[in-house]
Amino acid sequence: MKRPSKIKLIAWVASILPAGWFIINYALGAYNPYPTLFLTQFAGKTAIVFLLLSLACTPLRNIFSCSSLNQPRKVFGLASFYYALAHALTFLVLDYHLKWNWLLPEFQNKPYLLLGLAALLLLLVLALTSIRSFQKRTADLWIKIHRWVYPTTLLVLIHQYFAIKGDKRTAILYLVIFGILMILRVPFIKSKVRIKREDSFQKINRWLLS
Predict the structure, then answer these.
(1) Rounded to whole angstroms, how far apart are CA atoms 20 and 65?
(2) Fewest Cβ atoms nearer than 10 Å: which of 72, 98, 112, 152?
(3) What's the rounded Cα separation, in Å, for the pair 46 and 19?
(4) φ and ψ at residue 65, rounded to 5 degrees
(5) What is the Cα–Cα distance from 142 to 130, expressed in whole angstroms?
């Protein structure tokens, strides 16, 4: 079995840290008297952060001509799905106890919940098809499926924007970041922002890939 590279190990540790931080604080009673509400919000925000991090990998690789920066993409994408799943399950199970007579009016009165559900299902498809064997067997189909990550991210961000009752600056910031990451994928822009790779950066790249 191939040993994971250093940058992948760093990415896995980074993806686990928010969950560990929450569990420790929960054990210390930091979220009383509304731990469920905090977990719902925390898991949702963390899912968005990792989704944007996964989208940032390719532009950063192009800018710095550093292949190692693309390696955490899958790790961050899977982390985003796991936190999104925790976000949804907390809402459905802990908040509403899977009682559909409570849930249906919520979905009817709050359309952004349907956007969140659609985004979660798309993230599930992306997670299930991220398996390397699936990628090798269906290369062309895999590429088409994983382009869904862009509309999926937009659904997630719209869901968050309308779910927030108060200050929406964070939601707007995430939308701006997403817009910048999309612009950096435009071929003309991509060619203009590339930074010449230095020898010292090559050494860092090799170390991260090792």
Answers:
(1) 33
(2) 98
(3) 9
(4) 50, 45
(5) 8
Let me know how many helices (H) and strands (E) the chain has, helices first. 11, 0
* Both tokens assigned to 177: 């970041």
Q: Please tell me the predicted confidence (pLDDT) of residue 203.
A: 61
Q: Residue 141 and residue 159: Cα distance in Å, rounded?
A: 27
CA–CA dist 82, 39 (Å, integer) = 13
| Nearest alpha carbon to residue 175 among 193, 157, 191, 148 | 157
Contact 80, 57 (CB under 8 A): no
For residue 17, pLDDT beyond 70: yes
d(CA 156, CA 149): 10
* Residue found by looking up tokens 């707007």 in the block: 172
Mean pLDDT taken over the chain: 87
Nearest 5 degrees, angle CA 4-CA 130-CA 66?
Answer: 50
Please name which of 124, 127, 122 lies closest in space to residue 148, comparing C-alpha atoms. 122
Q: Which two tokens stand for residue 97?
A: 């106890």
- Residue with the bigger pLDDT between 193 and 182: it is 182
* Residue 90 in tokens: 């907390």
How many residues are listed for the chain in this entry?
210
10 Å Cβ neighbour count for 35?
17
- DSSP assigned state of 194: P
Residue 10, phi then psi, degrees to nearest 5: -60, -40
